[in-house]
Write a structure and sequence with these properties.
- The chain is of the alpha+beta class and 280 residues long.
- The protein has 2 domains: 4-133, N-terminal domain of MutM-like DNA repair proteins (Alpha-Beta Barrel); 145-269, Helicase, Ruva Protein, domain 3 (Orthogonal Bundle), CATH 1.10.8.
- Helix content is 26%, strand content 21%.
- It contains 7 helices and 10 strands.
- A 4-stranded antiparallel beta sheet has the order 1-6-7-5, covered by helices on one side. A 4-stranded antiparallel beta sheet has the order 2-3-4-8, covered by helices on one side.
- α1 packs parallel to α7, α4 (145-153) packs across α7 and α6 crosses α7.
- The model has no long low-confidence stretch (mean pLDDT 92).
- The chain binds a DNA duplex (16 and 16 nucleotides) through α6.
Length: 280
Amino acid sequence: MPELPEVECLVRGLRQQVVGWHTQRVEFRRTDLREPLATAAIRAALCGHRLETIARRGKYLLLSRRDGQGVIAHLGMTGNLILSAQSEPLSKHTHVIFHLTRGRQQRALQFIDPRRFGRLAPLVAQTQHPWLQALGVEPLSHSGLARYLWQASRGRRVAIKNFLMNANIVVGIGNIYASESLHAACLHPCTAAGQLAYRDYQRLTRAIKKILRQAIAAGGTSWRDYRDVSGKPGYFALKLAVYGKQDQPCPRCQTPLSASKIGGRSTFFCSGCTKILPSH
DNA sequence: ACACGATCCTGACTGC
DNA sequence: TGCAGTCAGGATCGTG
């Protein structure tokens, strides 16, 4: 489910709802996620402490106390964090429950992940966590993104779509927003990243920022199973131009949209108003 | 260094 | 209704 906008919406929801709460206890129902959970260290990082900071880096969520210790989570393809009353029934795929208190109030923050591609680990110091070490730049806050991408892509023959989805270059752009951004910038997803000119990256960068911001403002994309922190769906799916819309008319030129696999992932584009640049 | 395919896992959906 | 096959929003690892 989650690309940058979904994680950002989750972070904003959590900031409002759990900052200032104390972790009373952490309950593990399954520990065999992508990596086995370090249960003792996760408990030690949170239990008895006040949640002070909720942050995002790429698609990673960081929940930490005042001294910076806490947990880092990645939601994989199907993960989510849902806040519920202590008494509400649990999902079949709730693997971890953070029992939170504030005074006499109680809440449960559930880590849910049917496919178990997600990750959860103790966080000692944010700047040193191995999962964050190789991450590329943040697309929304990097002011020279076009120049950075243009420079990073020189000599690269990989398809621009895969280049954009490489989190070591730029974080947060997943399969949906890669297709959407490229279409908005009139670029064909198969074009070699190194073939694009600086002006192409300027157009692409504007499209990426605009689409990510719109998606955040709309509450994230509700494709299949995305839910916000209180369990409500996002609404951006209504605004997608190409993703999942094979054979429907291109909103720009009316050509029926195409679908294909690029790097093993479903890709949607318009063969009418985007062209692969000839390589030379 | 780079490009690419396989892989982790469950659920939803399609077609027979 | 049941069953097999296919596909899914991510990231890592091994291979060439």
